[in-house]
Amino acid sequence: MKEWICAACGTLGSLVILALGGWDVGLQVLLWFMALDLLTGLLVAAVFHRSAKSENGRLDSRRCFQGVCRKAAILLIVGAAHAIDLLLGSEMVRNAVLFGFCVSEVISITENAGLMGLPLPAAWKNAIAVLSRQTDGNTNDDQNG
């Protein structure tokens, strides 16, 4: 039974990695960033009680599950980008999607670090604020008009 379970898990894992375009550096970095974002988000809520995702800043299992679902959706989008690359005979779309999501995860990790009270350079905070506004669609023009 143990061998059957190991074989099934290995086969399923291989199929998932194949659907995501292979186990390359881009996917590995994205998965590491996703894990770090999840971990720092849990720390912000469970230890520091400063999460903007819940009313009282504390850990909320529903919000945590929603975050995991978002991470799964990111992987589905990576898989879709890989499928587009297969159609086009390229690797550009998947790589662009991986890069974009890696940047998004780094922004979130940095925001979590700030909520934990880690000192961040002013230039880094400003860059994150600009990127966050652009990601949310809230530019200065939108706020003033």
Care to describe what's here?
This protein is mainly alpha-helical and 145 residues long. The chain has helices spanning 2-19, 25-46, 61-88, 92-115, 122-136, 140-144. Residues 139-145 have low confidence and may be disordered.
What's the shape? globular
By DSSP, the count of extended strands is 0
The whole-number mean of residue pLDDT values reads: 89
Number of helices: 6
How far apart the termini lie comes to: 65 Å
Rg measurement, Å: 18 Å
Quaternary status: single chain
* Topology order in helix (H) and strand (E) letters: HHHHHH
Strand content: under 5%
| Class by SSE composition | mainly alpha
User: Are there runs of 5+ residues with pLDDT below 50, and where?
Assistant: 139-145
Major beta sheet summary: none
Q: Which bin fits the share of residues in helices? A: over 70%
Feature tags:
77% helix; mainly alpha; disordered C terminus; 145 residues
Give the gist of this structure.
With 145 residues, the chain is mostly helical. The protein has helices spanning 2-19, 25-46, 61-88, 92-115, 122-136, 140-144.
Topology:
Layout: H1 2-19, H2 25-46, H3 61-88, H4 92-115, H5 122-136, H6 140-144
